[in-house]
Specification:
This is Mitochondrial transcription termination factor family protein. The protein is 59% helix and 0% strand. By secondary structure, the protein is mostly helical. Helix 2 crosses helix 6 and helix 7 packs across helix 8.
């Protein structure tokens, strides 16, 4: 059986400068090979409204003065043929039942696929592998159009035929339009060979809605992802390993993990890292998983905060997810507690975290830490479950050396569980910092018991900044220990939003900088009181009702602590 051929589009094909034609197949040959004896065209690509062709596209670009076209002519010829190829892709997708909007998006955002089809058609033209018998078929298809338009429409028909012969039914173009590279699109399209394009488009839109319609910002997702990796110190299972590989791909692009919540930036890497995602049934698999996560407390608009940070979860069956979620009943997780934990640390359902979970509980039990305190710590900071037992024991020993043990230890970890995830050297640096300020070990332990979050703070950005503030308002270095001991929370208070407004208020009331320094030195908790709820009403009471002077207030600043204390001072005055 002789192969059928089509007329060579001499005004669209750039002649090879070499005496022999270029016989290396284009990239089109790596998806599905073109058949040796292609069937004649029978499909009319114009049953949808055709694109309006610019008359300039129909003009000849042949240089009459010599055989080789100019650079400008060559560029125009290539541009014209690629434009026609995109139009042909649009027509082909329309034949498959794709909406006009999706056809336009896909055909405009699959340049590599268009180039592949364009090269394939032009290569076949150059090789003369299309028989001359198809020329009549082209003319019959075109009707009574002029000669040049007939040639152009014939080229589009060949592109459509080439797309059909590839056998991917438009999926390669669609996947490239999602941001995938051509090679990835071809590879994934093979695995989706039994999936028609229209339902695949619907499934992708549903997946994007689930993964990327979250209410949280992209930066928040990235911040949580980095925190999860930072506090992971145990051997990991395959699911977490795949997640980390996915993170690595996102981190390598501009914006890093802060772009994790961006559909345009990360969906292609999600599909490349988990190609089976597009094989899942939206109705029978994905929707039941989403529904269960909603039941345990994950809001639908926050679903991406869980699934993007732990994509393998979407592949699990409901029975496995329920079994792992119920394991947290042991720490008193009820109602929406599991959902809250998942939003903070989705890896709690992974095999490696679940196995470490039992070991973490055993360590706390050995240290005789009250179970209620342990349960509360894990629920509020589930990242603890990714901590190795050796690191955890080291931190518990350090706390014990400062006199924080048993019940007191329970109070500390319930209030500031993240303290247990501090790096050893960072914890020691805070202890040394307080000793340099003037505290002995016993008082460092007392501060730890009262304000454990202080030991999870950064020295330069937080602690040193507050020391400078105190010195700046007139507290001498000798008085720093006494001032801090009475109110260690001062060292973790925000300077601009908490401390400065209170100083400014007292100055507006007519107190001098020296008066304020005296008050803070005598009663440092003053800087933690509310201006509207404490200072204004109590100062009005002291000045107006009790008829005290501002200097009386300066002399007894603890009168602000409570109404009872105020009355006591009233009687003493």
């Amino acid at each position: 059986m002789s192969a059928k051929s089509f007329p060579v589009l001499t005004h669209l094909i750039v002649p090879s400068p070499s005496p022999k034609p270029h016989l290396i197949p284009s990239t089109s040959s790596h998806f599905l090979s073109f058949p040796q004896n292609p069937l004649p065209f029978t499909t009319n690509v114009h049953h949808h409204k055709p694109f309006k062709i610019n008359p300039l596209l129909c003009s000849s670009s042949t240089n009459s003065s010599n055989n080789a076209p100019s650079d400008q002519s060559q560029s125009q010829s290539q541009s014209h043929s690629l434009t026609l190829t995109q139009q042909a892709i649009y027509d082909y997708l329309s034949e498959l039942g794709i909406s006009q909007e999706d056809c336009a998006f896909i055909s405009s955002n699959s340049p590599k696929y268009a180039q592949m089809l364009n090269d394939s058609v032009q290569d076949l033209e150059e090789w003369k592998s299309w028989s001359s018998s198809s020329s009549g078929s082209n003319k019959n298809d075109v009707g009574n159009g002029d000669g040049e338009e007939s040639v152009l429409i014939g080229f589009k028909e060949k592109v459509v035929r080439m797309a059909k012969e590839k056998g991917d039914n438009g999926k390669v173009a669609f996947l490239e339009s999602l941001g995938l590279s051509l090679s990835s699109a071809i590879s994934i399209a093979r695995s989706l060979s039994g999936e028609p394009l229209p339902p695949l488009i619907h499934k992708v839109k549903y997946m994007k809605e689930i993964f990327f319609s979250g209410s949280n910002t992209e930066r928040t997702l990235g911040k949580n992802g980095r925190r999860m990796m930072k506090h992971l110190s145990i051997p990991i299972d395959e699911d977490v390993q795949q997640t980390l590989a996915f993170f690595e791909k996102i981190e390598a692009r501009r914006g890093g993990l802060d772009m994790l919540g961006s559909s345009d930036a990360s969906f292609r890497y999600l599909v490349e890292s988990f190609p089976r995602l597009l094989l899942l049934s939206a109705e029978s698999h994905v929707k039941p998983v989403v529904d269960f996560l909603e039941i345990v407390g994950v809001p639908k608009d926050c679903m991406g905060n869980v699934l993007l940070l732990f994509p393998p979860l979407i592949f699990w069956n409901i029975k496995a997810i329920k079994t792992k979620a119920l394991a947290f009943e042991e720490i008193g997780a009820v109602d929406n507690d599991v959902g809250k934990m998942l939003l903070k640390y989705p890896w709690i359902l992974s095999t490696s975290i679940q196995e470490n979970y039992e070991e973490i509980l055993s360590v706390f039990n050995e240290e005789k830490v009250p179970k209620l305190s342990v349960d509360r710590a894990i629920r509020s900071w589930p990242h603890l479950l990714g901590c190795s037992t050796s690191k955890l024991k080291w931190m518990l020993d350090q706390l014990g050396e400062l006199g924080v043990e048993n019940k007191k230890l329970g109070q500390v970890i319930a209030k500031s569980p993240q303290l247990l995830l501090r790096k050893p050297q960072e914890f020691r640096q805070v202890v040394s910092f307080l000793e340099d300020v003037g505290f002995d070990r016993e008082n460092v332990g007392r501060i730890l018991g009262r304000c454990p979050e202080l030991f999870a703070s950064n020295i330069e950005r937080t602690l040193m900044k507050k020391i400078d503030f105190l010195i700046g308002i007139g507290i001498s270095k000798d008085h720093l220990p006494r001032t801090i001991k009475k109110y260690p929370e001062l060292l973790v208070s925000d300077v601009d939003r908490t401390l400065l407004p209170r100083i400014k208020y007292f100055m507006e009331m007519g107190l001098s900088k020296r008066d304020i320094a005296f008050m803070v030195r005598r009663f440092s908790p003053l800087l933690g009181y509310s201006i509207d709820e404490v200072f204004r009403p109590k100062l009005a009471f002291l000045l107006n009702t009790m008829e005290k002077s501002l200097q009386d207030v300066v002399a007894y600043p603890s009168a602000f602590s409570s109404i009872v204390q105020t009355c006591l001072y009233y009687n003493s005055w």
